[in-house]
């Protein structure tokens, strides 16, 4: 997560990504919910990426992606608002 100027977003838990250093917890069905929001989510914070109150840029980095990600047959899930 980066601010509009391209810098990492400072946050109270000093978490700047979810992945290899902050392993998310999967749901019982194997899916993963990530919470990208300013305020901490209710319950566990393990899948929380603190966001600033204002604008930010969310970037998906893929190292050694599979061919389906390269050729566009795989697409990442959409980012949406929780209901």
UniProtKB/TrEMBL annotation:
Pfam families: DUF1214
PANTHER family, per the entry: BLL3101 PROTEIN (PTHR36509)
InterPro entries on file: DUF1214, DUF1214_C_sf
Highest classification ranks of the organism: Bacteria, Bacillati, Actinomycetota, Actinomycetes, Streptosporangiales
DUF1214 domain location: 1-67
Transmembrane parts of this sequence: none
Identification of the protein by name: DUF1214 domain-containing protein
Top-level division of the source organism's lineage: Bacteria
